[in-house]
Amino acid sequence: MIRSTTGFFARLALIVLAIAVVGIALFGGMAIHYWLGWPDWVRTTGSWAFPVVVLGLWFVPGHRLWGRRIVALALIAAFFIAYDAKVPIERDWIALQEKRPFAIINGDDVTIVNFRDAIHRSGEQPEVRWTEETFNLSQLEGADIIIQPFGGVKALAHVMLSFGFSDGRHVVVSIEARRVKGGRFDPLAGLFRHEETYPELGTERDLFWQRLARTPPDELQIYPVTASREAVRTYFERILAFANSVNERPRFYSTLWESCMTTLTNLAPESFLSVPWYDIRRWVPGYSLSLFQQVGLVDASLPAEELRHTRRLRDNVTPPWEFPSDAAWSAYVRRDF
C-alpha cells in the first residue's frame, strides 16, 4: 500500500513537472520574441528554437532521457538568468515621453524637473512643454483618483492620481508604458519585460485635456480621496521617490505587476490604501471604483454605478488655453462637483 501511494505521488510529481516545463518553454519563446536589442532574425529564430529544443530534450523518448532533461533544465536556468539581467534600452521615444521626470526634495519644498505642461489641440500634434515647478508639501491639501474607462469593456480603464495644493495647482501622476514613435501599447508585450515604465508627472490641463481633446473625447471621472493629509503626503513622497528611482535606473513595465493600477497600489501606504493581493479588483482597473469605496477611500454613500454618473466630467469642456492658469482651469472642471 505504501509503495503504491509513493508511486502515485511520484507519477503526479512528474506530470506537474512536465506541465511546468511546457509552460516555461512557451513563456521563454514569447520572451525571446519580445527581447529588444537583438536582431530580428535572432529573436524570430530563438522564439521557435527555444521551446522546440527544451520540449524535445524533455519529452522525446530514447537513450539517456534523464541526462537530456538535465540539459533542458540547464537551458531553462540560463534563460532565466539572462531574463533577470535584462535592462531597458534607449529607444526613439515619442515627444510627450522623451524626458523622464524627477524630483529634487529640500525639506517641504519639492521641485519637479521635466514637469509636463503640453498643449493639446484636436487634430494637431501636441505642443510639448517641459518645465520645472516647485511645490510646498505643507500646502498639499488632498488628492483625487481619476478613472478613464476604455470603450465598452467594463474591465478596462486607466487610473491616475491628481494631488492638489492650496494655491490651486495640481500634480497629475499617470503610470504609463513608455511609447516609441510609430508604436502602440501592446499589453501582451508588457508581460515579457519589453516595455519601459514611465511615470508621467504633469498639469491637469495637459494630462486631462490630452484625453478630452480626442475625437470622441475620452470619459474622465474625478473622485476626491477621503484619506488624511498626512497619508496623502506620504503617498506623494513615495511616488516622487519612485519617479527618482526610475530616472536613475529605468525599469520594465508589467501589464500585471507594475501597471497603472498595480504600481499606484503598491506604492500606497497602508494608511492610504490597503488591498489584499488576491482581490481581483487590484488587477482589473475597470472594477477599481467599488474597491476604493469598500476601503473607504472615496464616497461610499451611493452605489458605484450611480457615483460614476455624478463624478463624470461633463461634455463640451472649455479648452484650458481659455483660462489664465492651470489652477483656474482645474477649478473650472470641478465647478459642477
UniProtKB/TrEMBL annotation:
Keywords: Membrane, Transmembrane, Transmembrane helix. The chain crosses the membrane at residues 12-35, 41-59, 66-83. Residues 129-283 form the Lnb N-terminal periplasmic domain. Pfam families: Lnb_N. InterPro entries: Lnb_N. It comes from the Bacteria. This is Lnb N-terminal periplasmic domain-containing protein. It comes from Pseudochelatococcus contaminans.
